[in-house]
Fold:
Amino acid sequence: MTDDSSQPVRVVVLSGPSGSGKSTIVQRLIRECPVPIRQSISATTRAPRPGEVDGEHYHFLTLAEFETQRKNGEFLECAEVHRTGNWYGTLWSEVDVAQKLKMWSLLEIDVEGAQSVMRMYPHAITIFVTLPSLDEYERRLRARGTESEEVLQRRLQTAREELKMAGCYRHQIVNDDLDTAVQAICRILATHQAEINAR
Ligand code: ADP
Ligand code: 5GP
Structure:
């Protein structure tokens, strides 16, 4: 897949600190977005959370499997996220499927992975999701209740660092009101789709 005018790259990168609402927004976009869009299912070495299904939420891999696939060049990007020792990566196969269907690939990835995608595809649509305050991240993470205290504190520390990267993204969206945030992203995508259609 190339980033040239003959073959427009339909890649949307969504990043933001843990608890900013990325997963919630992704689910809404898949249902409501006016442009054809497909979620890229990442590979990860972290353990599934209760209710998470292999191949649906993530492709859950052992570290050895992940390493083999990485060496085989199967990842568009990958990173160790949140200093947990857990690896996450975007598979070429996921993006290729969407590209063949002329659908947008929606990548919910961390800031390091996003930088790799930006270098590879300067025309990718990059969106950083934020909240009005750090206190609100903490409130939402605690309300979600999926992390231990130690992991939660680490994610808050990472959030402070990730927020410094927001300016590298083409769009910043404050997820204060969910409907407003989803509508804003839908508008961004519809505008870019219209540009592609007009070529
Ligand atoms: P992330 O994927 O960025 O870690 P989640 O999508 O899991 O974040 O959202 C974190 C928590 O905040 C979840 O419990 C979710 O239901 C909630 N949430 C998401 N968006 C909003 C919003 N706009 N207002 C209030 N709560 C929200
Ligand atoms: P979680 O463990 O909460 O599902 O995800 C933790 C973090 O991993 C999130 O910030 C998410 O954006 C990031 N992440 C998920 N998939 C990928 C991926 O394929 N690549 C990269 N670089 N980060 C990812």
Q: What stands out?
A: The pocket of adenosine-5'-diphosphate (ligand 1) is lined by residues 16, 18-24, 140, 143-144, 175, 177-178 (CB under 6 Å). Residues 100 and 130 are 32 Å apart (CA to CA). The mean pLDDT is 93.
